[in-house]
Amino acid sequence: HRQLAPFPEGFLWGAASAAYQIEGGWNADGKGPSVWDVFSKQPGRTYQGSNGDVAVDHYHRYQEDVALMAEMGLMAYRFSISWPRIFPQGRGEANEGGLAFYERLIDALLAHGIEPVVTLYHWDAPQALMDEYGAWESRRIVDDFEHYCRALFTRFGAKVRYWITLNEQNIDTTRSFLLAKHPPAVRDRQRFYQANHHAFLANARAIRAFRQLVPGGKIGPTFCYCPAYAASSRPQDVVAAESAEEFTNHWWLDVYATGRYPASAWAWLVEHGQAPRIEGGDAELLAEAKPDFLGINYYYSQVFEDNALDGVGETDFNTSGQKGSTPVNGVPGLYKTTANPHLPTSNWDWAIDPDGLRITLRRVTSRYNLPVLITENGLGEFDQLSDDGKVHDGYRIDYLRHHLLACQQAISDGTKLMGYCAWSFTDLLSWLNGYQKRYGFVYVNRTETDPLDLARIRKDSFYWYRDVIASNGRKL
Ligand code: BG6
Known about the structure:
- One of its GO terms (biological process) is carbohydrate catabolic process.
- A hairpin with a 3-residue loop joins strand 9 (330-331) and strand 10 (335-338).
- This protein has helices spanning 19-22, 35-39, 58-72, 83-86, 96-111, 127-133, 140-156, 169-177, 189-213, 235-258, 263-271, 282-288, 354-368, 394-413, 460-470; strands at 12-16, 76-80, 115-121, 162-167, 218-224, 228-230, 294-297, 302-305, 330-331, 335-338, 372-376, 417-423, 442-444, 456-458.
- It is of the alpha/beta class.
- Residues 18, 21, 167-168, 171, 224, 297, 376, 380, 423, 430-431, 433, 437 line the site of 6-O-phosphono-beta-D-glucopyranose.
């Protein structure tokens, strides 16, 4: 077999998190409520009513968490800033209490030689803006988002080199406007495409402001790429898979990278009266704002087949952790999902497919030719604290090892891979699956509704990843 290229020197070995999923301190030091503080309290929205009021209390335990990162030898840590911590009303005067928290965190990371990778937006919009104008459904959010980003670039631009604009615009808006699972929890394709257009403009404005304020830094969006496979070599299934690539991947990545919506998807939306309204100057702004890299989150691949005009639409997904409970999803007349008989799945029915990561990196490199930072990849499982006081997560080591080998294959194929941030560092709140779906290298002792003592316990994967980092990936 082929000799694999080594991981490059300076490769960013990292781990990732998001504010709402770890911080807690939901109203500490002047923070305003986010849409998730409100949404998670509505009956039936989340798994067993779990919420991020306390989460894993990173807000108060960040020093202990950073010390564990340093012990592991982590070189990069991706975290997100909570917009309503900085602007409790979404705009206006910045809240010094919120800025000071992130300054302490960034300084603690830098003191240990850990590169901060800051996500500007990971789904927790200020509730004030939802109340005022429907958040992403109004163009007004574009100005408010730029104002928020400018405050962060000004305050932290000299300390933070790597920035992510929006986390998984595709997943968040799909769940908000097609699956009715994230706020505002509706099913409306026209509103979906309009909200996405505003998010594209916000992403572009953030990049434009960044060029002025942080000239030496690197910025890009993070996208959740699920490569589409055809269910068979029937040309109808191949067309379905191509449409799925176009509607579920290119729709976002083409706009980020080139400023243009993909042609065949655009034609279909015009025909169906779902295309977003575009105003004068939008196209120029989108074309001007070029990212330095693409952040890619990869969890699984998906298989698609032909779907009749009166066929299945957007339905739902598995939030229970019961294998086999994921329904078929699709867009009538375009495509629908089907299981992959060649792949094992997690308890949430996510196909375990390391080759899918290689395919993702090859497709993204061929189409956009930009450097890639893997901003998330990992395995959510029901980890157990054993009688010996340890967490033996060999299945996670196996998952990560094979995905890192896929990264090496992609590097050998020509992908410019800047780094790899595993999801996640500590266990955290899964938005809709609760605390029972664990991803961390560090176990956090809490249940769905009871924070217990929130003790941090290093899993077997913690020691394994430490050795991977120390050997720059030679010891997988
Ligand atoms: C990504 C998100 O979609 O996947 C994370 O950026 C999320 O916030 C992660 O937690 C894993 O998804 P889930 O549904 O298993 O929590």
